[in-house]
Design a protein that fits this description.
heterodimer; A: Rossmann fold; 7 helices; 26% strand; B: alpha/beta; eight-stranded mixed beta sheet; 10 helices; 14 strands; 33% helix; globular
């Protein structure tokens, strides 16, 4: 996870019921529980990460996000998190719609492929290798790449309202030209 | 005495007699009865570290440890229970009870019916998962255990664990239901019915009162076990273990044992019919068939599970087609809709239903981590 815990935690209202899709070892949910009194549930496909989450006292369901969130009722969570998971999902649009269906607030973050350093790198004719995208094009686990501007369009296409959006660089919030200066993009969305 | 092959060492079964009749779901009463059970570890001063282990169809109260150092006498869940094991007996007081109707020492069809002085046989009342849970609760009462730190079971044992959280919600802090289902499917019931017909139509069954004739319906019981065994294994596991391997290297052009799988099933069937009671097999498969906590709420499992207060662990195995992951997910979904705490692991294991008895690192890793958290909560 490259998005700083504190940045995401600040976006989650205290006491929220949180669903963390692709929760990894559960550190974000444990942090939200301990620092903001949230109750939470994670979804993680990797068994070893699930064990690490259970060790932290975090409840996790071992499910494949590609199969959707049909297990969860509409508005059954205050907040649904997709931190650095969206690029790993093939059915991106469906995942976004489902996130907004299940949660009253969706918080998503992903590496912004339009950061200026990536634009420069592309000018050399090569795909970038950055701290947020530390893979070569031929071995990346990411199925999708997206930019800040692209996501804004997808959110609108899905009928979602963006209630907050910003870039991140070095763990710090960037509100000026986030699509150019943010190495990561963070979006808070709600059904319109 | 030789060194025990179990980390837990040798264990000794205990026996408890109950003179007050047990009311059953059928409306009948089990008059007086005995339960055989084993305990491992020490009950703490606060009596808060008890874990009840519920056994499945053909298992018993002997969940862990050995008898007299004999490696063949290991308990059925010895790889999971013991000092340093995922269910660590250095921290938990573990209780496992042989259910009434079974045939390993607790009152069952082979026991003497006090009203006739004869073995119960066909007259032993049909018992359900709920009846077992109530019988277990009475035994825990006598041990001075008001509230369980956890209840755990696999397969039919998982059904009992689930039922515990519904019948005695205030007495269960945590529930681990492994390789189980909220009810049997039509296919599951169909397999059970074939098994029962094999037993009942065996000429040596004598309507269930074969004890008086000095015989056992061995053939029927063996066939029942063969059918069961097929459903415990995955197609892949069977292919890997036996494939089309021949017993004697050549086809026999007859109906004897040609294939290794035939030899294996016959061996399992014969072994089983040598120690298991035919009436117990009928009763226990019927308890499986009847288990359906959602029945009272018109099939609405979420409504049925609303009574539960425990924190849950559900585990399924990808190749288990008898109690498939989908059935566990039904339970998970019903618990989630009630906002109950639940962790669910879907373990990628090749063995089929039997995987719940195996020492799989991720499966045992999840169970270990889950019990570690319970132990930490107890210590806090």
């Amino acid at each position: 996870m490259t998005t700083p815990l504190a940045v995401i935690a600040d976006l989650v209202p205290p006491g929220s019921r949180v669903l963390d899709l692709g929760c990894g070892d559960g550190r974000l949910l444990a942090h939200l529980r301990d620092s903001r009194g949230c109750t939470g549930l994670g979804v993680e496909i990797n068994a070893d990460k699930l064990i690490a989450a259970v060790q932290k006292g975090v409840d996790v369901l071992q499910l494949d996000l590609e199969q959707g969130l049909s297990m969860f009722a509409d508005d059954s969570f205050d907040v649904v998190l997709q931190i650095d998971t969206l690029p790993n999902i093939r059915h991106t649009e469906n995942a976004l719609r489902e996130t907004a269906r299940v949660g009253r607030l969706g918080i998503l973050s992903f590496a912004n492929f339009a950061h200026w350093s990536i634009r420069l790198r592309l000018l050399t004719g090569r795909l970038p290798v950055t701290p947020e995208l530390p893979y070569e094009w031929y071995n990346t686990p990411n199925l999708r790449i997206a930019t800040y501007a692209d996501f804004t369009r997808l959110a609108a296409h899905c009928g979602l309202r963006v209630v907050d959006a910003f870039g991140l660089r070095g763990g710090r919030r960037i509100d000026f030209a986030p699509g150019l200066l943010g190495s990561e993009a963070v979006f808070c969305v709600q059904r319109a | 005495m030789s060194a025990s092959p179990s980390a837990l060492g040798d264990v000794t079964p205990q026996r408890m007699t109950f003179s007050q009749p047990l009311p059953l779901q059928s409306g009948a009463l089990l008059p007086s009865y005995e339960l055989v059970y084993e305990t491992y570890g020490e009950l703490n001063a606060a009596r808060s570290n008890a874990v009840l282990v519920c056994h499945a169809l053909n298992a018993s109260h002997h969940a862990a440890g050995s008898y007299g150092g004999d490696p063949k006498s290991l308990g059925w869940w010895d790889n999971l229970i013991g000092p340093g094991k995922p269910l660590d007996t250095r921290r938990f007081f573990v209780v496992c009870i042989n259910n009434p109707g079974s045939c390993f020492g607790s009152t069952g069809p082979m026991s003497v019916d006090p009203s006739t002085g004869q073995p119960w046989g066909s007259r032993f009342p049909v018992v359900t998962v709920e009846d077992w849970v109530d019988a277990q609760a009475r035994l825990l009462d006598r041990l001075g255990i008001e509230r369980l730190a956890a209840v755990i079971g696999g397969s039919l044992g998982g059904m009992q664990a689930l039922s515990w959280t519904l019948r005695h919600p205030d007495r269960v802090a945590h529930c681990a239901a492994i390789a189980t289902a909220p009810s049997l499917s039509a296919q599951n019931i169909a397999f059970n019915e074939v098994a029962r017909r094999a037993i009942i139509t065996d000429p040596d069954f004598h309507g269930g009162d074969f004890y008086a004739h000095g015989v056992v319906p061995r053939q029927g019981l063996a066939v029942a076990r063969m059918i069961g065994h097929i459903t415990y294994l995955s197609d892949d596991a069977m292919a890997a273990k036996f494939g089309r391997a021949l017993r004697n290297g050549a086809l026999g052009y007859g109906f004897g044992v040609d294939f290794e799988i035939e030899s294996y099933l016959r061996y399992q069937g014969d072994k089983f019919s040598g120690y298991f009671d035919a009436n117990s097999y009928l009763l226990i498969t019927r308890a499986l068939d009847y288990f359906d906590p959602a029945r009272a709420s018109g099939g609405d499992l979420a409504a049925a599970l609303a009574a539960a207060k425990a924190r849950f662990l559900l585990v399924s195995f990808t190749t288990d087609w008898r109690f498939s992951p989908q059935r566990s997910r039904e339970i998970v979904q019903a618990l989630i809709s009630n906002r109950r705490a639940v962790t669910y692991a879907e373990i990628d294991a090749p063995q089929g239903h039997d995987a719940f008895l195996m020492d799989h690192p991720q499966y045992h890793g999840v169970v270990r981590a889950w019990f570690d958290r319970i132990a930490q909560e107890l210590a806090a």
